[in-house]
Amino acid sequence: MTERVLIKDLAASPDGPVTVAGWVETVRDQKKVQFVVLRDESGAVQLVNPRTVDEEGVVVADEPATTISALSQGSFVVATGELKHDERVKLGGIEIKLATLTVETASIPETPIAADSGIDKRMDWRFLDLREPKNNLIFRIQTTFEHALREYWVDNDFIEIHTPKLMASASESRAELFEVGYFDTTAYLAQSPQFFKQMAQPAGFGKVFEIGPAFRADPSFTSRHATEFTSVDAEISWIDSHEDVMSMHEDLIVAGFQAVKDKYGDKIKELFDVEVTVPSKPFPRIPLAEAKRIVAERGYEVPRHDDDMDPEGERQISAYVKETYGHEFVFLTDYASSIRPFYHKRHDDDASLTNSYDLIFNGVEISTGAQREHRIDVLEAQARDKGLEPEELDFYLEFFRYGVPPHGGFGMGLARVLMLMLHLSNLRETTYLFRGPTRLLP
Questions:
Q1: 320: how many CB neighbours lie within 10 A of its CB?
Q2: Helix/strand/coil (H, E, C) string of the chain?
Q3: Residues 68, 49: contact at Cβ < 8 Å?
Q4: pLDDT tens digit string along 211-236?
Q5: Rg of the chain over all Cα atoms, to the nearest angstrom
Q6: What's the predicted TM-score (pTM) here?
Q7: In terms of C-beta distances under 8 Å and separation of at least 24 residues, what long-range contacts does 161-164 make, across chains too?
Q8: What is the third-level CATH fold of 7-105?
Q9: In the structure, what pLDDT confidence band is assigned to residue 305 with cuts at 50, 70 and 90?
């Protein structure tokens, strides 16, 4: 068989014999000519088959006409024929005059989802949903974004680590943990690689990163939560404050967005009607208390049941930053120690505040970062403040008894970043196979 050519490469190919393969998207079975739109993983092309007519004007039932007449949408076929460039052809200015058409696998004619199907129905049939060009593009964007992050890290002497997802004890607290049977004991699925990232600091790794799964036993049914998600994490030694972490974080974001814009900016504009904006540095930084005052002046009072910013507050502060600075990102800094983990370093002059931040993008929090506390006596005291017994954390606290440099890092939800980049309303769209409280299939 002639080597298969990807449809995206046909425009640059010379006229002549060609073989393509893909899924049948549409069929127009007319009396004098048949048209098939074929789509592979790279694009779509029109196949043309002029019908054979005998001397009496009767259409002859020959091949590939008979095969085309019986085609169902979604069938996977291999086609050979003559490639021809013709600017009159609306679909890419090229078409293929068919010689042969072979059905490798036929599709059931009745498709279980349609363009207007709800998201839960589409998730049931995700392998069909992902054939849509828009959905296919999401994961090409994801690949480019991740590659750009890795390129930044590698170029800046980071070490990639792969941390275990089975843990003997809680990674941060016993809340939102999945328990799993582990031989004759109980293990926990890791909420984050936090402790293991920090272990790399006394090991002398200096700068580490990981892109991997994380698990939260969170029964939320919102458009931005999942029980299993991909976490983007980094940790660096020899920092002065969380400012060093934020600087690295914004460098990463810029690198990722620039790569996506360069490779897919035009396609994103075409399919999503979204202009990818590469953010300028530095990103705006606003202490949380000041952010709450700004939001209040805009007419919204953040509920005072805790010291965090709620979702509406995040939307309001993002709107303010967009209006004031023309920026889609904002670091909210100086969170209260009462709502931060015990390992976040507290202000030297105010123990009620931490050297930490949340990164807000287009009105939604996508990341938490901080300088970590590296002094063992302070760590133990802060753990007790949170109601944790140091004995339960002994494997973690051991790191800090053998010399740990000042360090910090962040964890970021990959699907949220992509969702907000493309102005989508649900991270199910940017998750290959979503897992939530009521979904374990497909």
A1: 18
A2: CCCECCHHHCCCCCCEEEEEEEEEEEEEECCCEEEEEEECCCCEEEEEEECCECCCCCECCCCCHHHHHCCCCCCEEEEEEEEEECCCCCCCCEEEEEEEEEEEECCCCCCCCCCCCCHHHHHHCHHHHCCCHHHHHHHHHHHHHHHHHHHHHHHCCCEECCCCCEECCCCCCCCCCCEEEECCEEEEECCCCHHHHHHCCCCCCCEEEEEEEEECCCCCCCCCCCCEEEEEEEEEECCCCHHHHHHHHHHHHHHHHHHHHHHHHHHHHHHHCCCCCCCCCCCCEEEHHHHHHHHHHCCCCCCCCCCCCCHHHHHHHHHHHHHHHCCCEEEEECCEHHHCCCCECECCCCCCEECEEEEEECCEEEEEEEEECCCHHHHHHHHHHCCCCHHHHHHHHHHHHCCCCCEEEEEEEHHHHHHHHCCCCCCCCCCCCCCECCECCC
A3: yes
A4: 999 999 989 888 889 999 999 999 99
A5: 27
A6: 0.94
A7: 161/193, 161/196, 161/197, 161/200, 161/205, 161/208, 161/209, 161/210, 162/210, 162/212, 163/190, 163/193, 163/196, 163/197, 163/210, 163/212, 164/190, 164/196
A8: OB fold (Dihydrolipoamide Acetyltransferase, E2P) (2.40.50)
A9: low
Tell me: pLDDT of 1 over 70.
no
Percentage of the chain lying above the pLDDT 70 cut: 98
Fold of 126-421: BirA Bifunctional Protein; domain 2 (3.30.930)
Lookup result for tokens 């009462």: 338
- Of residues 61 and 305, more confidence is placed in 61
User: What is the spatial distance between Cα 269 and Cα 142, in angstroms, rounded to a whole number?
Assistant: 16
Return the domain boundaries, the chain: 7-105, 126-421
Q: What is the mean pLDDT of the chain?
A: 95
CB 163 within 8 A of CB 212: yes
